[in-house]
Structure formats: structure tokens, C-alpha cells
Amino acid sequence: QVQLQESGPGLVKPPETLSLTCTVSGGFSSSYYWSWIRQAPGKGLEWIGYIYYGGTTKYNPSLTSRVTISVDTSKNQFSLKLASVTPADTAVYFCARGITLGGIVAPHFDHWGQGTLVTV
Amino acid sequence: SLDLTQPPSLSVSPGQTATISCSGDQLGRKYVFWYQQKAGQSPVLVIFHDEKRPSGIPERFSGSNSGNTASLTISVTQAIDEADYYCQTWDGSTASFGGGTKLTVL
Fold first, then answer.
1. What is the pLDDT of residues B34-65, one digit of tens each?
2. pLDDT digits over A10-60, tens only?
3. Which of A95, A94, A65, A97 is nearest to A82 (CA)?
4. In Å, how far are A119, B33, B55, B103 from B80, measured between CA atoms?
5. Cα–Cα distance, B56 to A27 (Å, whole number)
6. Is A112's CB within 8 Å of B88's CB?
7. Count of CB pairs separated by less than 8 Å, A with B
């Protein structure tokens, strides 16, 4: 049973850096797309980025200048750093596992954390 | 990233069929995924690869994708299906979500 749990400060002041960690239990492998997704209050989902096999990262073009996603396989964790935050970055931040099936290189998010609210 | 357009809301009566659309440029050439998010909860995958249901998702959930529009259909809609629904696809290595559709069952 795969479980993901976000952790980190619930309040960040501008223009500091938002830092969150996602701890994975029940199966941590570099063959998945470990992802961050956020949801501003009352709004829709916004993909932030992922880290994949060997440390390959991809980020949302709208955030790429401020985002860093890293992984610590020894701790079964991956992390998000978002620099120079503003109130517009206030959101619930979800970590999620992306998986590909049948050789189709289009991951879907099959396991999600419960989300953590970060207020800027 | 690809812009995906969904209707903001949809209301159906219990037992009716709910169809939620998701429009985007040449969307039919891409794989589409659908997520259900109930109030205060994390999203749950209900459809992947346009039309496939994950284990544990009821058969009343189905999907299709052609041309510029993908659709999520919920047949015999139940009160427990009331939620926000999001479509999602990939444009190269960038994921895009639709704005979400609030499904009300009344």
C-alpha cells in the first residue's frame, strides 16, 4: 500500500523560499514520476513538476525559473523548493506518484498525498 | 502547456447520465486522464488512457476522446458522485489540467 505524506512549514513570508518534503512508504522507486501539484484556495489543480529516473526533472514553464525538485532515495523522500514566493503561491500542495503503463510515456497520478496548505 | 477547457458546473438528477467535456487543440491525439476530487479530499484517478478504469472505479464511469474533445460519462449518477472533476493531459513533458467541473447531483 503506497502512501505519500507532505511535510513542511505552513507559513512562508515573501520573498522567502517555500520548502516541502514528501515521504513515500510502501514503494519508492526511481521508475516513477514523483510529482508536485498545487491547488490555490477555491481553484483548480496546477502541475508544478516531477523528478524521474536518475534525477531527470521537468517543470511547469510558468514556474521553471523558481522551482527545484530533488530526491533523497536513502530516505524515500522527494522535495520541492519554490523561490521568491508571493501571496499568489498560497495553495494546498500535493505530492503524487506518476506512473506509466503499457509502454505509454504519459504518466497518470495514481497515488496522492493528503496535501498541505502553505500560506504566503 | 496546452489549454484545456471544461464547463465550470453541471447539475444532474440521481439516476441520470452526466457527461463532462474537456476541450483542447488536437486533444484526440493525446492521452487524457480524469480525476475526481471530493470536498476536502485529494484527487482520485477515475479514468486513464482516455477510457480505462483503474481497479476499484465503478463501471458507470467511462471516457472517450476524439478530435478536440474528451468526455467523462457517469451513467446512473449517484449522490456519492458529487465532486469536482478534472481532465489532464501531457503536452510533451508538461502536464496540463482543465479548470475543473463541479458536478452537483440533486
1. 999 999 999 999 999 999 999 999 999 999 99
2. 999 999 999 999 999 998 887 899 999 999 999 999 999 999 977 899 999
3. A65
4. 31, 20, 18, 11
5. 20
6. no
7. 58
